[in-house]
Amino acid sequence: xxxxxxxxxxxxxxxxxxxxxxxxxxxxxxxxxxxxxxxxxxxxxxxxxxxxxxxxxxxxxxxxxxxxxxxxxxxxxxxxxxxxxxxxxxxxxxxxxxxxxxxxxxxxxxxxxxxxxxxxxxxxxxxxxxxxxxxxxxxxxxxxxxxxxxxxxxxxxxxxxxxxxxxxxxxxxxxxxxxxxxxxxxxxxxxxxxxxxxxxxxxxxxxxxxxxxxxxxxxxxxxxxxxxxxxxxxxxxxxxxxxxxxxxxxxxxxxxxxxxxxxxxxxxxxxxxxxxxxxxxxxxxxxxxxxxxxxxxxxxxxxxxxxxxxxxxxxxxxxxxxxxxxxxxxxxxxxxxxxxxxxxxxxxxxxxxxxxxxxxxxxxxxxxxxxxxxxxxx
Length: 378
What we know:
By secondary structure, the chain is of the alpha/beta class. It has helices spanning 2-9, 15-24, 26-34, 48-58, 63-72, 108-113, 126-141, 154-164, 186-195, 210-223, 237-247, 265-272, 281-288, 310-318, 327-334, 338-351, 365-374, and strands spanning 75-78, 100-103, 115-120, 145-148, 169-173, 197-200, 226-230, 251-255, 276-277, 354-357, 360-363.
């Protein structure tokens, strides 16, 4: 009850408040702030101005009403030490949330154990939206929980991608969990509250501010095993999440974009530092997953002529694109004897690469097609 009350008094990320919580506990801290016995003034780092601000916020605080409001929405309040509390948030030390307001039927701790954050630009390009949605869907199909901030752009695309495959997704809000922000995502947030999880540090009815968005990012970073950034400018809030993740020892990944795109400039700078380049969900899982969760090896297409041994390939290359040559001329161009060249030509004949043309040899249409592909033709 005291922690629920303190979420109305302490701002998210208030490290002094977090230190006092650790030193004297939630019940005692609330008592000191609300009483006039001089105990609050003795807290290390407390100033008269700061105490006046806390006491002003404490006026009219009714944690019972807040808890009842969230319960009516099918939600709950989760504190450090509860069975559902994600212990990885403790890595935030004094900046750890006082508690989390949660909506949704899923177990927060279990979902957070296998989760990845996908964040990026609000004003993203069609490419950014496509990549975020693909990552969201593919990560969900691989059994991972997709975490983001429910904002426009990359966040919304990642959430929708996961929901499109009936996958798991979780939104971390910078406002009360009963507030649909942005309003254009009211339906999306409602779907996540029904099928997944919507969480936040702020009590019911609280609205977001610029600083709360920035501080919300540390929760996304700490909650997940890694953060993927899809499109971000140099001053993007998504890079704040990535750098928070780096400081916490989490994996940081970036999806590259066009070199000329200002929306990808921040991602590229991240990749020049400690970020890892990823292009799909399997590469993300290879980094954040367990032993054996490896991305498939990738290579270009394999053409039939790629399977030829060296001398046969040289003899085949010796034949002109159009017209026919004798076995002797083919041997001279391939740098081998006439007998060996003729033996290879008959072998190539059986494989369908060449055909007889009177006393000469010529390429088949199949061989010319493969030759075009090898040389970059169509």
